Every structure is written in C-alpha cells, then in structure tokens.
Amino acid sequence: MVADTSLYDVLEVKPDATKEQITAAIKKKSLEHHPDRGGSHEMMQKVNAAKEILTDPQKRHTYDRYGLKGIRSDMAEIFDLFDLITGGRSRGERSTPPKGSDIKQALKVSLEELYLGTTKTVTVNRKIICADCHGVGSQDGTTHECTNCEGTGIETIIHRMGPFIQQMQSKCSSCDGDGRTIDWRNRCKKCNGQKLFQETKKLDVHITHGSQDRETIKLSGQGNQIPNGESGNVYIILDQQPHAIFNRNGDNLIMKLEINLTESLCGFQRLINLLDGHTILIKHPAGKPIIPNTYRCLKGYGMPNRHTHSHGDLIIHFDVKFPEENFITTDSQRQVSLFFTSE
Fold it and tell me: Which residues form the J domain (predicted)?
C-alpha cells in the first residue's frame, strides 16, 4: 500500500502500474490536456508533476513510501507543481518524512551503578502502528477523501469583525488533518480506527561506567510510531540517587570522615570501602594534629572518566568531634594542662 495516490490518480493508473503503463498514460494525458489542443494549463502541470516523479525509480519509491512530503528536489519549480496537487500545503513544509513523537523518561541509578556501569531495564508506554490494519484504520484497507477539507487536511475558518473578514487555516476537525476518513462501520476493531494503539515495552538501557548525573541516553526508533513515517526516539535521563557516604563533584568523590579528638591528636587508621568494592586503609601519624574542617586528597580514587581513561580524586573532609562538657575530672585537667604547657 502506498502513502499517496494523487499522482497516480492524475494519470488514472493504479499504484502498481508498470513503467510502460505509466509512460503510455503520460502520453495520453499530455495529448488530452495540452493547452494547444484546448486542454487545461493546470491539468497539464499536474501531468508534468506526475511525469517528474513517477518516471524516476528513486523518486517513485520515495513517493510511494512517504507521499509528496517525502520527495526531495533542488528544483524550486517542483514545489509549484506539488502546490497544484496538494492545495499549497507542500510549500514551507518539511520535505523529510514525518516522525513520531519522542519519549523522555527518568531512570534512577545509584552512584555504584554510575561508577561501574550496568544494564537496566525500563518500561515505556508508547503508541505503535496497529498490526491488524497496518496503520490504515479500516478493516478492508479503504478510506475516503474527507468532505470537509476535500482531502487537504486543512479547513478555513472565517471570522467576521464588523466590516472586516479574517480567514484562518487550521487542521481539519473532521479528519484530524489526515485528509481521509473511515466509515464507522468499517473501522478496525483492534484500534477502533485510530491506526495506533498503546503498548507497554521493556527496553534495555546500557549505562557506561563513569556516566554523569542527568546524562541522556538515546534509544533510536523506540519512541511513538505514526503511519507512513519514522518512529520517534526514547531518551533516558539518568537520575543519580543520594549516597550514604560519598558526594559527587564532577569526577571527584567527597566524603566526610568523623574522628574524635584523640584520633586527631594521636593519629589513627581507618578502612574505607570504595564504590567498586575495594577497601583502602587511611593512616594518619601521631603528633600531627588534624585541624577541624580540613581536607585530604587521595589521587585517582574518584569516579572513572571514560573519555580520558583516568579517575578523579577522593577528597576526605575531616570532621573532628570534641568531647562534651564536664568530660574530665579536676585532677585529669591538671595533667592535661601540664602536658600541653610543658616543653
């Protein structure tokens, strides 16, 4: 089934006509409508438009699949010929095939999943072409030209404002801009003549290691479908969830490490579990007090960067906890005082 039959109708041939049949029809119609023989200049232009497209195998293939909108040409005059057939709709419109709408969906991911990379499954609700009627909308594949817009898909609305008359064009309300209608008794039972129906689809999303928060992953052709057009895309937006230990800043990881006053003054050792499951030992020597709210940088222990094939840094923020009030006796206070004042 072809997307548009208007050019075949001009020549009064079927869409499956052979090249020889089309050539014969063009010769016949040219003689019939030639202005020198008393024919119509407008009809002759339509015949020339049909000749331009249907005698070129590549253009005919594109026309059969996408209709007049799908025809690409560097010849400006070809659009004038299209205007005769489509009522001016081709001018200013896209020459590329129509496309279904895209779907955007957020996907929650953990910091570990962004670090290591993973594959997750998402469920999307999308519109797909009805398999029973193949996107035509009728049981037997037949449709009728819309009587409201005469097949143009556009209706003209007239507004009267005193002595002035304003004309506005909008999508036809009877055929929803399609230009064709379906007898209600002949509607496809599966889609009820809508040509599409809702489908729930599961898709695998491959997340590369080192992916960023709010990064978008494109799944081409998995979006909403439309008859005689291309499918839209699905865009998955990664939504990084808060982590119990680490905060992310670009490729760097920041963590707060709580230590007590004794550890600050006398040193400590602490094991830290990294996002990839490895454990590192943090050592701080005695005699080098850690000042509250200071930082230590461990090079190369942050997030991976798939572009530079390197890692960011792990930045440790030290949170020194001081004792509560009255934590020490009077005698102990003297000993501590002597310790800090002695040389």
Answer: 6-67
